[in-house]
Design a protein that fits this description.
Keywords: Coiled coil. The strands form four sheets. A six-stranded parallel beta barrel has the order 7-9-12-15-13-10. The chain has a three-stranded antiparallel β-sheet with strand order 1-24-23, with no helix packed on it. It has three helices and 36 strands. Residues 3-34 and 255-259 have low confidence and may be disordered. It is elongated, with a radius of gyration of 21 Å. It has helices spanning 17-21, 47-63, 85-91; strands at 3-5, 13-15, 27-28, 35-37, 73-78, 92-111, 117-132, 140-142, 145-147, 153-158, 164-166, 169-173, 179-184, 190-192, 195-206, 215-216, 219-221, 224-236, 239-240, 243-245, 248-252, 264-267, 269-271, 274-276, 282-284, 287-289, 293-297, 305-307, 310-312, 317-321, 332-334, 337-339, 344-348, 354-356, 359-360, 363-364. The longest helix has 17 residues, at 47-63. The two termini are 25 Å apart. It has a domain at 32-43 and 176-364. By secondary structure, it is mainly beta.
C-alpha cells in the first residue's frame, strides 16, 4: 500500500479518433479508436457506519429475545434444536458447528463470535443474508443458496479475518450498491467455489477510506460470477498481496453511458487528497468475457502481476490500466490472451507497465 498525493482525478475523459491519430506511436493495428476513460459508480459508503447499523438492529433484536440459553452448545442443528439459523448462532459455542437442514429460511443472520462453522446440509435457501462483525474471525459459511430479501448484501463482513466462504450460490441482489460478497478490512480469508448471479457487484474486498484499514493475503479462487452490474470481482482501497485466481467472470448485465465497471477491477480510493492503492496482488488464470472492461486497474495501483488470463468479447477494452506515480513498481502483464474486445484489447496509460508474451490484436500505449 502507498499513499499518493492527489492533484486531480479526471474521472471521465473522452478522446476522439482525431485526437488519437495525432500520436501514431499510440496506435497499433487500428486506425480509428474512440478511447473513453471509464467513469466508476462504486458505492464508497462507510463500512463502519454500515456495521453500526446492523449492530443496532441486533441489539434491538436481543433485547426482546426469549430463546437464549444460559450455556452454549458445541453442535446445533436447525430446525431440530432451533427453528431459525439466528437462534442457533446465538446459542452455539465459540468454534462450534451449526448444521442447517433443507428448507427456506427468511432471515438476516448476525454473527458476533469466532470460529462458528455454519454449513447447509441438503437444499437450503436463505432469503436474506449473513452479517459478520469484528469478533467473527474464522467463521465458515458453506453450501447455502442466498437470495435477496431486505438485505443489501449476500454476505457482509467488517474486520473479521480468516473467513471461509465456499460453495455458496448467491443471486438476485440486483442494484448497483448490492454485493454478493462484501468483506471490509479482512485478512487471510478464502472465498472459494461460489456462484454469484445477478448482483450489483459480485465479490468485493474493500478497506475504509482512511489509512488504517488493510486487507492482505486473501484468496479468491474458482468462483463463477455472472450477470453483474458494476464489477464482477473488485479490490477497492488498500489491498496488498492477495490472489485472484481461476475465476470465471462474464456478462456485464447493465450498461448505460458513463456507467462502467470491470470484470475484475483494482480501484484506488481517495482520502484527504491522497490515493490509497492496491499493490503486489496476483491476478492469474481467470476467464473474463462479455463485460464492459475485462480487467480494470485504476490510478496508482502498482506491482501487481497479471498472468495467464483469457479476456475476450468485452464491449470496450480487454485490459485498461491507468497512470502510476513516478518511482512506482510497474504492473506486469504476462502470457495473457486478450482478443475480440470491441474498442481495443489492451490500453495502457501508465507508460511504465511491463508486457511480456501477451496475445492481442489491438494495443494502445504499450
Amino acid at each position: 500500500m502507498k499513499n499518493v498525493c492527489f492533484f486531480g482525478l479526471v474521472i471521465m475523459v473522452m478522446a476522439s479518433c482525431t485526437d488519437l491519430s495525432q500520436n501514431d506511436n499510440l496506435l497499433q493495428e487500428k486506425d480509428q479508436i474512440e478511447l473513453a476513460k471509464p467513469e466508476l459508480e462504486i458505492d464508497f459508503s462507510n463500512l463502519e457506519l454500515k456495521m453500526k447499523f446492523y449492530e443496532q438492529k441486533n441489539q434491538e433484536r436481543l433485547a426482546n429475545a426469549t430463546h437464549l440459553k444460559k450455556g452454549c452448545d458445541s453442535n446445533v442443528k436447525v430446525p431440530l434444536d432451533f427453528s431459525s439459523i439466528q437462534e442457533a448462532v446465538d446459542n452455539v459455542c465459540d468454534g462450534g458447528h451449526v448444521m442447517v437442514s433443507s428448507g427456506e429460511y427468511y432471515e438476516e443472520i448476525y454473527i458476533n463470535k469466532p470460529g462458528v462453522k455454519i454449513k447447509a446440509i441438503g437444499d437450503v435457501v436463505l432469503i436474506g443474508g449473513f452479517i459478520l462483525n469484528e469478533y467473527a474471525d474464522e467463521t465458515t459459511i458453506q453450501n447455502f443458496k442466498i437470495k435477496l430479501h431486505g438485505a443489501i448484501n449476500g454476505i457482509f463482513s467488517y474486520k473479521a479475518d480468516k473467513l471461509r466462504i465456499s460453495q455458496n450460490e448467491i443471486e438476485d441482489f440486483p442494484f448497483y450498491n448490492n454485493y454478493g460478497i462484501l468483506l471490509g478490512n479482512t485478512n487471510e480469508s478464502i472465498i472459494h467455489k461460489n456462484k454469484i448471479i445477478r448482483t450489483g457487484n459480485g465479490i468485493t474486498l474493500m478497506t475504509d477510506d482512511n489509512y488504517e484499514g488493510i486487507s492482505q493475503k486473501n484468496d479468491i479462487s474458482f468462483n463463477y460470477v455472472n450477470s453483474y452490474f458494476i464489477s464482477g470481482i473488485s479490490f477497492i482501497g488498500n489491498l496488498d498481496e492477495n490472489s485472484i485466481k481461476n475465476n470465471t467472470v462474464s456478462l456485464h448485465a447493465f450498461y448505460r453511458e458513463r456507467f462502467f465497471g470491470g470484470g475484475i477491477a483494482l480501484i484506488s480510493r481517495v482520502n484527504s487528497n491522497h490515493f490509497i492503492s492496491s499493490d503486489n496482488n496476483q491476478i492469474k488464470n481467470n476467464n473474463i468475457s462479455d463485460g464492459t472492461i475485462g480487467l480494470l486497474i485504476t490510478d496508482f495501483n502498482s506491482g501487481n502481476e497479471v498472468t495467464g488470463n483469457e479476456i475476450s468479447n468485452n464491449f470496450m477494452y480487454g485490459i485498461y490500466s491507468l497512470s502510476l506515480d513516478e518511482g512506482a513498481n510497474p504492473n506486469i502483464f504476462k502470457n495473457n490472451t486478450v482478443r475480440d474486445n470491441f474498442s481495443c484489447d489492451i490500453v495502457d496509460v501508465s507508460g511504465i507497465n511491463i508486457y511480456l508474451k501477451n496475445t492481442a490484436d489491438c494495443t494502445i500505449g504499450i
